[in-house]
Design brief:
four-stranded antiparallel sheet; 14 strands; single chain; 180 residues; elongated
Length: 180
Amino acid sequence: PGTTQLVADVDNGERVVLDTVTGESSPLDLGLETFGLAYSPDGTRLAVTTREGGVGLWDVAQARWGAPVSTRQPFAGWDLTFAADGSEWATIASGAVGRFDGRTGDFLGSVTIGTGGAVGYTPDSRTLVIAEDSGPVRRWTLDARSWLVAACSMAGRDLTDSEWRDHLPGRDPVTVCGRA
């Protein structure tokens, strides 16, 4: 979507950009060996992973790194997918699903799963669906407010001062469940 181009692997191990309208192809040279790639829905960005766990975001129009490949939050996933609104992308690797900002490439978080599998977003981009190789299909609701509501519902109270000191040192206690 948003582009007439696709990225293809060729027999010699190279990756090429193929224009599906003109039939023209050109090498895709990102300056490193890629493992996984996914276009953003509008075709302006390319999410990239490497076998070593590097993660980056390539600006297609500028032909440069919008977010250079970094191993600070290593994620050697090969199955990458963008949310329909382009706000984020996800990949699955080594028993975990990782989420990344679709515009900056920043790491947003991860969840552990039992095995490999596939990930995809619901059309409204609010939920990540995770299908594990071993069978379970899980839903990860991405609205942080829903996490707050769930935590308050389970705990039935705010954190105590002691819990704030132990788990959130350096932060002043605040009332959250009363606002949920």
